[in-house]
Amino acid sequence: MSRFLDRFTARIAAGVSGSMTGQVQLWDGHRMKVRGLTFMDADNYLRGIEGLSPADMWKAQPHLRTVVDFLARQMSQLSLHVYERDADGNAHRVRTGPIADRFRVANSEQTFAELLGVLVTEWGLYDDAAVFVLDDDSLRVFPTAWVHPDGAYFAPKRYKVETPEGRTLTFAGDRVIRFQGCTPGDPSHGTSRVDTLRLVLEEQFAAMVFRKQTWKRGGRFGGYLWRPREAPRWVDDDRSRFWRMWDAFTGNRGDKAGATPLLEDGMEFRPTGFSARENEWAEATKLSLQTCAQVYHVNPTMIGLLDNANFANVREFRRMLYTDTLGPLITLIEDRLTAFLLPLLGAPAGTYVEFNTEAKLRGSFEEQAKVLSASVGGPWLLRNEARALFNRAPLPGGDELIVPLNVVLGGQASPVDGGAATGSKGIESLTSVQDVVDRFVERQTRVVRSKRASGGSWWDRARWVKELRRDLLDVGLSDGEATVLADRVNDQAFARFVAEAGSADRWEVSA
Length: 511
Description:
With about 500 residues, the chain is α+β, with helices and mostly antiparallel strands. It has 19 helices and 13 strands.
């Protein structure tokens, strides 16, 4: 046994790879036959990595798979909409028909979202992928390693698809929508980003193998046993007995594993530690993941590197995902599908496809409400619509849109705008105008309710418009502004009083 191990170890130390066969004699008298024992040094491991295809690297390297899967998943969840422009240039979404159906179900086995995920994965690994249009106009993405263009560099006349079973499919060049990257000096194919990352991935692989070997062989307690020279000499039975005891305390299946072993003959356990290269592997792992993310133009925070993450920058990184990161890929897919796939499917002129990125870029409800209010220049939700959100019954008059006075006349973009109001002649402050209106409404309400309770005529519009107009002129409004605001305030007040009374009887309009 020792001679066999000596030969085996010597060949590994010499950097020789290969296999050994033969028989070894074990110390307990039993014989074991060794067949085809293969050994490989670290260089051979790396040479094996160098020969892996991008797909095999995706299987073996977690950081590469993390980034590529992230891109594919983000793209596949984007809805692809079909639009058609009319003669006036207005776009209308196409929701029914064979074209819209094809962008929901790609073939008999896949939805279009699933097909898109496969397409982005192949493109991410090979920088070269293609959508094949079958005879029934269904869509299919074959593995890039199966596809072989045949013909000119820029417009192959045909594509051959060779399956592992030996079957060959041939497609005309105009039935293939190819998404090909750039290789300077060779326009026939793209250059895989995996080739760019290969050195980093090889280094990470070698470090993983080295750490595994270190942890596997370094001892559970990270130390060694020391026995003094003056201790009694051990015979084979003593040595075997001790190692059986030690294995019972430290072995994976020992019946005393985890307990404190009892040493003898003055023996000591002397702890040792691994160097930073073996123990502090976290930084190297982060660097590998970060490098993969950089090559694919993905912000590392989006794939789990949260060292400098906070709520504000993560929200902005999320917005950047669909602009800076996925934006070029989105444009590439939209343009090629519009230019080449839609005509193959028989789509009329003016038809195009577009990803619904707007849905992913929407903010929270509060942010959307603020933006919409500023965009339309006033409130955009009816009172009964708001009540319906909380399962409340509608109210009479709740289907009218209320416009606050600071928006009607104050010159502000929306009721939530905190800026100073401005009129044609200028207003000293919005607060003074609002105070005038509030005091007027309070006084008017007392008078009208008192008259209505007495049973007499309770509404005199001319009076109220005149009084409010005079008060508004005193705070700096122009004649036209004061008139418009006084009319609007009294129209709203009259509607409110009628709703309170349940009837418009016994009211009059003064001349």
